[in-house]
């Protein structure tokens, strides 16, 4: 019998004790420790619905807050899977709003527009102009990169725990952001936890792909929550009721068997047993009645339905409204849609919170509410009739419109969803207004998958309207916007189809301007879809249409696009003709930006096949026009093009000047793409001039960025330039790994095969593939596999020849092929390649190529014909290489000259040249060349100089002495840089080298040390 003082356990509004999670909680605590110490990481937390993921992460969040870790917790909702960056915003916006005044702007560091685009609730950057509005690829990379950098800085200020729950419902843009962010966390103080339910259903493809990618790279781990064991349930019963013995064991077994160890189901079963008085308290003792399973819920859903069935009418109505709204609902919106007076609303809210159906979120001035568990929301929704659903959706849309007023379009996606679900009678135009606005906003924010969905629905709505009510211009605009979204997501075929539909509509009404614009878009899309000839025909038609209506700007842009497409296809001469024809048209326009683009294109095109002076003239003019236009992104591109040109021409000082300007602009524009593109030139330049430490340092900063934003395009090129430095430093294994990765990423095999078969490659990029061949040929030469080096080099030459890229053959490839031929004594080949190198270099006024050709010819004459004039020719070539700041290559030629002198009996001359070569190899760290040189010096009986350059002041280079003299005058690094027309970074690098050579630690000590060597004329 039950005693008269029996009472029900007061657990209706409390959580049950946590059991069975000690080990996993400990793992998460260790991860938190790591993050506080600066070792960021990403953890996927997986488990079925109700398994306790939310309970676990919120417990960790409370502990993190006690340890002064910034906590941002949010997630996705089943009703909001298409809201751009919704999951990320839900977590971060409330937390960031709590930062002290001004802190957010300091952390943003100029990236307010990108942050505002991602996190609309912050209200950042709305009034700022996008500096790269004309570069779609750059906008997306800046968006991702600057967000990751912002979170890294946020973590540096205060460790951050970022929790994203229910990722199975996430919007695709948030998942893409997670993928990018997780790869940047290694050295940060950010712990990212992403939870999702895996209830036996297939995960969304975006989430599954991202998880697999991050796991494969080692950038994330998965922690799975398992069901509670029988012993866990017994522990819970003991903590709640103090139950032990057989009665507890029988009860635990029945609960565990029925619940299968799901904590939410266990919770619901225990509450059911207490509320049905099958477990009760007498005095200080708890008693369990004998009972069968009749009346016990069989599933979680049934248990939750039972809980909801006991709600009062107003409470139930409010729960239904909250379920329809989805996500977090404000108190005013709940009241308006539920149509409850204030007292009834308060009673309903209190009742739902007490029964743990809803929970209150204390953020901001307006109370917000959400379901305690997503399964509760889904259960409420499942209990609604179709008519009830539609009515509540329509009421929600109307109340949102009323409350937001003129700002209703800021919630266009939400309102559109409710109108669609509400089946608003005669509301197609109204729904279309919100749906199209949501699609265009998503497109502007680069949430491209969401944009595609919204815009596709908008097109369907538009086409479902009668002819009399449909706006033809809006219909065509929607088709164009949808095509852009499809192209961004990789569906080029779908994009082309929609642009062609829009083109047909423009033709039908005689809109020539739209025709010209659409022909250009279609032509480029078709060309890059593997049909270049067809694409070029569309571009021809676009050019004709633009000129017919005197739209010079569109005609010029079309011709530049056509020229660059022809260049990409290797049709250089045709490309030059097309772009040169655009020049007088652009000049007549008096549009500085337009003129800059044409002349920049000519700089790039003519830099490959014309004398540098011709291309340089266009480059300088492009730069002047870019400055006049005020477009800093365009100005950066002219510096970049000129740096490439001067690098190809072997003009080190000019490269340095343009690199310095390009680097500064890339930083000011906060563009990771521009930074990596600039770094490529800097690394290649450092490779040539022997600034290897500096080149490696730049590569180590740039390669991780390139992996994140341009793995198939820029990354292979960075890997080759860095690999060549590694080879020169005798770091053969490190070089091989870099070069082999570049080979794979560039699809060099595919390009090679297509070239041999006489067709255009379907994968890979020609420039990158040629460079990959250059790198691998250099590797085989470095390890003595001369025949393999020759084979790879000649295949690279075949690709360059097929597509007309003369400059690649001069710049690196022909010298490698010639050297391999010399080792193999294939002198006929060497003669042919040397003549080619010399003739092409003369045609292009390429000093570097001419110096290499002179050295190659001298060596061939000596080895094949025993010509005695080899030494003077080699020394002249070495001096020319030194004059254009290629010290490593000059030292190798001097070593060749010494070997010839030694064979001719000129021991003094050989000793002199070996010493000069030794100093360069020692300074650069060219291990293999240094060992060979020292061996030759030893064979001559020469006293070996210090092997490490830090052992003598006389090993300083001329440039280093120039810097030392200016440092002695107490000039700053910046002042020295301006005086010598180099960058401050280069000055710093040279000073570091001098410190190492002389064993000093300061500028003052450096000057004092050098004054001990008056022969160096430091004060001169």
Brief digest:
By secondary structure, this protein is mainly alpha-helical.
Characteristic key phrases:
1020 residues, Arc Repressor Mutant, subunit A, globular, disordered N terminus, five-stranded parallel β-sheet, Rossmann fold, three-stranded antiparallel β-sheet, single chain, 48 helices, mainly alpha, 5% strand, 8 domains
Polypeptide structure, described:
Mean pLDDT is 87; it is low at 1-10 and 1014-1020. The chain folds into eight domains: 22-224, P-loop containing nucleotide triphosphate hydrolases (Rossmann fold, 3-Layer(aba) Sandwich), CATH 3.40.50.300; 230-297; 302-384, Arc Repressor Mutant, subunit A, CATH 1.10.10; 398-510, Tetratricopeptide repeat domain (Serine Threonine Protein Phosphatase 5, Tetratricopeptide repeat, Alpha Horseshoe), CATH 1.25.40; 512-590, Serine Threonine Protein Phosphatase 5, Tetratricopeptide repeat, CATH 1.25.40; 746-852, no CATH class; 868-947; 949-1020, Orthogonal Bundle (Arc Repressor Mutant, subunit A). The N and C termini lie far apart (110 Å). Helices cover 68% and strands 5% of the residues. The protein has 48 helices and ten strands. It is mainly α and 1020 residues long. A hairpin with a 6-residue loop joins strand 9 and strand 10. The protein is globular. Strands 2-3-4-1-5 form a five-stranded parallel beta sheet, sandwiched between helices.
Would you spell out the secondary-structure blueprint of this structure?
Layout: H1 22-36, E1 41-47, H2 53-66, E2 70-75, H3 86-96, H4 103-108, H5 112-118, H6 136-157, E3 160-165, H7 172-182, E4 190-197, H8 205-217, E5 221-224, H9 230-241, H10 245-259, H11 263-275, E6 279-282, E7 285-288, H12 300-309, H13 313-325, E8 329-330, H14 331-338, H15 342-354, E9 358-361, E10 368-371, H16 374-382, H17 386-404, H18 412-422, H19 428-444, H20 448-464, H21 472-488, H22 492-508, H23 512-527, H24 532-548, H25 552-568, H26 572-589, H27 592-609, H28 612-629, H29 632-649, H30 652-668, H31 672-689, H32 692-709, H33 714-728, H34 732-745, H35 748-756, H36 766-782, H37 786-803, H38 806-823, H39 827-843, H40 847-865, H41 870-883, H42 887-903, H43 907-924, H44 927-939, H45 958-968, H46 973-980, H47 984-998, H48 1003-1011
Parallel strand pairs: 1-4, 1-5, 2-3, 3-4
Antiparallel strand pairs: 6-7, 8-10, 9-10
């Amino acid at each position: 019998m039950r005693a008269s003082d029996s009472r029900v356990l007061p657990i209706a509004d409390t959580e049950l004790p946590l059991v069975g999670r000690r080990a996993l909680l400990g793992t998460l605590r260790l991860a938190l420790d790591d993050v506080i110490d600066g070792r960021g990481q990403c953890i996927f937390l997986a488990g079925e619905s109700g398994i306790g993921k939310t309970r676990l992460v919120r417990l960790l969040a409370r502990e993190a807050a006690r340890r002064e870790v910034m906590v941002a917790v949010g997630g996705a909702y089943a009703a909001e899977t298409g809201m751009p960056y919704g999951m990320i915003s839900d977590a971060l916006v409330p937390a960031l709003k709590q930062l002290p005044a001004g802190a957010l702007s300091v952390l943003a560091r100029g990236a307010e527009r990108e942050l505002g685009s991602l996190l609309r609730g912050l209200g950042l950057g709305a009034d700022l102009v996008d500096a790269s509005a004309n570069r779609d690829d750059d906008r997306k990379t800046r968006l991702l990169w600057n967000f990751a950098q912002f979170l890294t800085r946020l973590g540096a200020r205060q460790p951050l725990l970022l929790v994203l729950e229910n990722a199975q419902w996430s919007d695709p843009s948030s998942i893409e952001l997670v993928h990018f962010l997780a790869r940047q966390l290694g050295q940060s103080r950010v712990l990212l936890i992403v939870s999702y339910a895996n209830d036996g259903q297939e995960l969304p493809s975006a989430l599954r792909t991202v998880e697999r990618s991050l796991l494969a790279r080692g950038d994330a781990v998965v922690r799975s929550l398992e069901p509670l064991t029988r012993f866990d349930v017994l522990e819970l019963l003991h903590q709640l009721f103090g139950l032990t013995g057989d009665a507890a064991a029988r009860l635990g077994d029945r609960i565990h068997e029925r619940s299968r160890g799901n904590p939410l189901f266990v919770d619901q079963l225990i509450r059911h047993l207490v509320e049905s008085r099958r477990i009760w308290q007498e005095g200080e003792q708890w008693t369990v009645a004998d009972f069968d399973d009749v009346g016990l819920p069989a599933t979680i859903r049934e248990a939750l339905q039972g809980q909801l069935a006991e709600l009062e009418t107003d409470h139930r109505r409010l729960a239904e409204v909250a379920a329809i709204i989805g996500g977090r609902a404000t108190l005013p919106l709940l009241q308006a849609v539920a149509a409850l007076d204030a007292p009834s609303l308060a009673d309903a809210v209190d009742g739902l919170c007490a029964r743990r159906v809803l929970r209150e979120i204390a953020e901001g001035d307006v109370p917000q509410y959400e379901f305690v568990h997503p399964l509760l929301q889904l259960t409420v929704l499942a209990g609604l009739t179709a008519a009830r659903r539609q009515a509540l959706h329509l009421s929600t849309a109307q109340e949102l419109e009323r409350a937001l007023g003129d700002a209703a379009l800021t919630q266009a996606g939400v309102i559109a969803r409710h109108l669609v679900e509400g089946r608003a009678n005669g509301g197609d135009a109204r729904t279309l207004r919100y749906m199209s606005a949501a699609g265009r906003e998503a497109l502007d924010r680069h949430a491209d998958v969401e944009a595609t969905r919204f815009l596709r629905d908008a097109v369907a709505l538009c086409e479902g309207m009668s002819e009399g009510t449909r706006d033809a211009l809006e219909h065509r605009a929607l088709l164009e916007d949808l095509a852009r979204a499809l192209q961004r997501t990789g569906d080029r075929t779908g994009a082309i189809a929609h642009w062609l539909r829009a083109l047909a509509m423009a033709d039908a009404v005689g809109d020539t301007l739209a025709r010209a614009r659409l022909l250009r878009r279609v032509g480029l899309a078709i060309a890059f879809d593997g049909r270049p000839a067809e694409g070029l025909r569309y571009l021809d038609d676009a050019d004709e249409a633009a000129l017919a209506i005197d739209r010079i700007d569109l005609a010029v842009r079309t011709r530049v696009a056509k020229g660059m497409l022809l260049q990409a296809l290797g049709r250089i001469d045709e490309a030059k003709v097309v772009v040169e024809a655009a020049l007088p048209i652009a000049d007549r326009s008096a549009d500085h930006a337009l003129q800059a683009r044409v002349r920049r294109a000519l700089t790039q095109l003519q830099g490959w096949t014309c004398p540098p002076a011709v291309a340089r003239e266009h480059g300088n003019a492009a730069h002047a026009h870019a400055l006049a236009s005020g477009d800093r992104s365009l100005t950066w591109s002219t510096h970049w093009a000129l740096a490439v040109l001067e690098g190809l021409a072997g003009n080190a000082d000019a490269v340095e000047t343009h690199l310095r300007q390009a680097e500064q602009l890339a930083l000011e524009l906060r563009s990771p793409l521009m930074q990596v593109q600039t770094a490529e030139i800097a690394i290649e330049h450092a490779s040539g001039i022997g600034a290897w430490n500096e080149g490696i340092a730049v590569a180590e900063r740039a390669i991780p960025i390139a992996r994140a934003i341009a793995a198939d395009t820029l990354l292979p090129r960075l890997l080759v330039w860095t690999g060549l430095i590694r080879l020169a430093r005798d770091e053969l294994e490190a070089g091989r790994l870099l070069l082999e990765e570049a080979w794979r990423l560039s699809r060099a095999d595919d390009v090679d095969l297509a070239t041999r078969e006489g067709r255009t490659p379907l994968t890979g990029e020609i420039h990158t593939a040629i460079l990959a061949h250059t790198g691998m040929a250099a590797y085989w030469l470095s390890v003595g596999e001369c025949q393999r080096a020759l084979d790879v080099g000649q295949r690279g030459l075949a690709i360059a020849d097929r597509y007309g890229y003369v400059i690649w053959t001069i710049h690196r490839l022909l010298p490698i092929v010639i050297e391999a031929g010399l080792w193999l004594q294939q002198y006929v080949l060497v003669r042919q390649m040397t003549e080619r190198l010399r003739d092409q270099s003369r045609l292009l006024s390429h000093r570097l190529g001419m110096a290499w050709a002179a050295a190659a010819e001298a060596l061939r004459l000596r080895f094949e014909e025993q010509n005695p004039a080899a030494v003077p020719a080699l020394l002249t070539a070495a001096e020319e290489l030194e004059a254009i700041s290629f010290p490593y290559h000059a030292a190798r030629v001097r070593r060749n000259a010494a070997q010839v002198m030694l064979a001719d009996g000129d021991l003094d001359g050989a000793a002199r040249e070996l010493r000069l070569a030794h100093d360069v190899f020692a300074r650069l760290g060219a291990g293999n060349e240094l060992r060979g040189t020292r061996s030759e010096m030893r064979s001559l009986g020469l006293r070996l100089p210090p092997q490490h350059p830090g052992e003598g002041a006389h090993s300083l280079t001329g440039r280093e002495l120039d810097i030392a003299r200016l440092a002695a005058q107490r000039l700053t690094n910046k002042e020295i840089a301006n005086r010598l027309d180099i960058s401050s970074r280069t000055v710093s690098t040279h000073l570091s080298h001098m410190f190492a050579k002389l064993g000093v630690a300061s500028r003052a000590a450096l000057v004092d040390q050098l004054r001990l060597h008056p022969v160096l004329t430091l004060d001169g």
